[in-house]
Amino acid sequence: MEIKRISILILASLLSLPLVLFAQEEEEKEKKGFSRIEMIQKEKEEKLENISPRQKYKLGKKLEKRGSNYNAIEYYEEFHQDKPDKDKAIHKLADLNFELRDFKAAQKWYELLLEKGADKYPYTNLYYGLTLKHNGEYEKAKTALAEFKKLYAGKDEEKYKNLAEREIEGCDLALSIISDPDRVNLENAGDEVNNPYSDFGPEFYGDGDLLFSSIRSDSAVAINQMAEKDADYRSKIFISENKGGAWQEIEALKEPLNTIDYHYGNPSLTADGNKMYFTKCETPKRKIDLECEIFVTEKKDGKWQEPKRLGDNINQKKSSDTHPAITQTEDGDYVLYFSSNREVDEGQGGKDIYYATSKDGLEFGEVKNAGPTINTTYDEVTPYYNSELKELYFSSNGRVGIGGFDIYKSQGDAGTTDFSEPEHLGYPINSSVDDLYFRIKPNERDGFLVSNRPGGFSLKSETCCDDIWQVTVIREVILKGYVASETDPKKQLPGADVNFFTVDGETLNPIGNVITKESGPFLLTMQPEQVYQINITKSGYFGAEERIDVNEIEAKDTLEMTFLLEEIEQREIKLKRIHFAFDRSNLNKKAKLSLDSVAIILLENEDFTMDVVGHTDSVGTLAYNMRLGKRRAQSAADYLVKKGVEVDRMSIISKGKTEPLVPNSNPDGTDNPENRAKNRRVEFIIHSNDPYLEIKVIYSDTNPEAAE
To answer: Could you give the angle at the alpha carbon of 495 between the alpha carbons of 491 and 498, nearest 5°?
Structure first.
């Protein structure tokens, strides 16, 4: 028994949903002389009690053989009601529900089969384990898979035991990452894009619009309607505009695309939007599975031209070639990635990813396998190459993963086999079921994927059918900030005070601050969906502020910014400090001469104001020295008032003994009277009403001993 690894990608590789296949199959049966679908419908409508259990089972097998698995299940269920002890129908019901991705139903039937101890079905524990994995019951899945690995001794023993071991590793991976999910939002694209059948092949189009593939036919609503001769149940390529974040009513691309004879899907556009690669698929005679070929159409005068089939090297006979993904190298060469089940020596097995290059995007050269780094012995599908990030994204069911098909990425140059070991994209991008068609914009923030995870629009079970999901990657952004002068923007300004705030409406919430150094940036980790404000001040410069909305940052992980400060014009004024005798606040003759110079400056510059600041030495209490410092400042201010300076232009400030000019004592702790004399002083801070002018006072000191 060859393992069936849920290859029903439901038109993802343009194998279609079994219900739709039923209609296709009937079209083919008509060619082969079979009756149309009404015959089957009539058979189903007969009173089942008039049909023997044996006939029910035979009808189920017949429908299963024709690809009508949903209908086959109904007959097997009826047989099981008649013969509950017969395990052959239970086995059929378990396997068919597994194939149709109704994993909850499959789990019920596999558990019933295991209760009966059906040793003649040696793969039961394997499929039961896979079913539990798809249902997210990872611990139970590990137990079932380990049981299969222990007991199985049949055909291809090593192959299947290796598979079971890889699936156990996938369960361990799931248990380790689901409890700590990546910061990613996934949202179903909604009912304008998705419908209960299969929606797939998303592609960025224009400025935020979406191209995709879907079955949108009224005839696909019910089986009996599919019997109509003109029923259009084939997939088409559609476009949906995005207005204000909402997808609009879809529109099918016009002919010469989307003709009635084929399934159209998997669109892939060149960067300029003037070439579109896509698949046309049909059902060959006497087959159920679709076979696909890759075509290209060019846009001229705003219209898509007659499609051209790519050469036989791309579309190989007896193979299905699908999932085209076009990109271009820095030299302008086209590189076409695609998935194919062709049988060639360099193939790794199953569906592999291949590529070919072209100068004009129409005639492609040798087709090459992407190599064992990318491809496995199982299936690799839905490739997508992001040329700006130099990353190849694809889905695989042949690697350690948490579901069926998981999404991976690998870095490397387009048109080569030199790629890094693929990296699992984690949870919730990947789920316990199938995840395909991952697309991401160069900002690594917005994209799409296709998945049959719960929460979509389903025809039958919650995991039967593929929907398109929007992906928003929520990233922290590291701000690397520099502060410089406008006159020398490449040189860091040390000593700038940088304050950080989060913005909540009109409220600024402080979250920290730093002082810039001689070199190197300051760093701030900014959380997604948050607005920050940066305020910067430095003496001699005007302050600066900047608001940053993290959602608007077109960056990966790091944002570098230089904050430029405008230098304030400085005017230097030379004055002399006023010194005092010990424990005194009266002014001597020399002090008054120094204050005369201060008065002249204030009287000549009417827009100047001044702080008069009194200081003391260290002798005495803090409170006493604060009073003494104030008396000294008041003495100087009173003298200036006598010289004509308005009192309201001066502020009296005392620092007491808190800001000595020099140490009051020697290094060994002994008293230093000379230094204490220097600390008994009054200083001046001059302000200008002109915001573009800063006053800097330069002191040429008098001899403090003259104050004694």
So the answer is: 95
Which two structure tokens, joined as six digits, stand for 167?
């699936």
Task: Return the exposure string of 508-540: e unless at least 16 CB atoms fall within 10 Å of the residue's CB, then b.
Answer: beeeeeeebeeeebbebebebeebbbbbbebee
**Cα first-last separation, the chain:** 112
Residue pair 20/37 in contact (Cβ under 8 Å)? The answer is: no
Give the sign of the dihedral formed by CA 250, CA 388, CA 474, CA 520.
negative
Place of tokens 């879809």: 250
Q: What single string gives the DSSP state of each residue in 322-384?
A: EEEEEEE-TTS-EEEEEEE----TT--SSSEEEEEEESSSSS----EE--TTT--SS-EEEEE
What pLDDT, in 10s, does the model give residues 393-403? 999 999 999 99
Length of the chain: 708
Amino acid 12: pLDDT? 37
Instruction: Give yes or no for residue 39 having a pLDDT over 60.
Output: no
Task: Return d(Cα 433, Cα 576) in angstroms, integer.
Answer: 83
pLDDT for res 6: 39
295-347 pLDDT, tens digit per residue, is: 999 999 999 999 999 999 999 998 999 999 999 999 999 999 999 999 877 76
Residue corresponding to tokens 């009054």: 682
Task: Give the Cβ contact number of residue 372 at 10 Å.
Answer: 12
Q: Which residue has the higher pLDDT, 541 or 224?
A: 541
On the question of pLDDT at 227 being above 50, the answer is no
Name the token pair of 683.
């200083």
In the predicted model, what is the mean pLDDT of the chain? 88
CA atoms within 13 A on the CB side of 243: 7
Calculate what percentage of the chain has a pLDDT beyond 90.
72
Q: Mutual orientation of helices 622-642 and 589-604 as an angle, nearest 10°?
A: 60
User: Rounded to 5, what percent of the chain is helix, strand, coil?
Assistant: 25, 30, 40
Say whether 82 sits in a helix, a strand or coil.
helix
Are 4 and 131 in contact, with CB atoms under 8 Å apart? Answer: no
Residue 23 has pLDDT above 70, yes or no: no
CA angle, 348 then 172 then 467, to 5°: 65
* Best CA proximity match to 443, nearest among 422, 406, 471: 471
Closest CA to 498 of 480, 473, 516: 516
Instruction: Dig out the tokens for 215 from the structure.
Output: 């079955």
Confidence bin at 679 (pLDDT 50/70/90): very high
Beta-bridged to residue 585, according to DSSP, are none
The answer to whether 365 touches 356, Cβ cutoff 8 Å, is yes
Q: Which tens digits make up the pLDDT trace of 580-608? A: 999 999 999 889 989 999 999 999 899 99
Structure tokens at 95: 């396997």
- Euclidean distance between CA atoms 473 and 477, whole angstroms: 12
Pairing of strands 608-615, 650-656: parallel
Closest CA to 565 of 531, 536, 601: 536
Q: Who's near 322: CB < 8 A, 6+ residues apart?
A: 13, 14, 266, 279, 281, 292, 294, 338, 339, 340, 381
- Beta pairing, strands 477-485 & 558-565: parallel
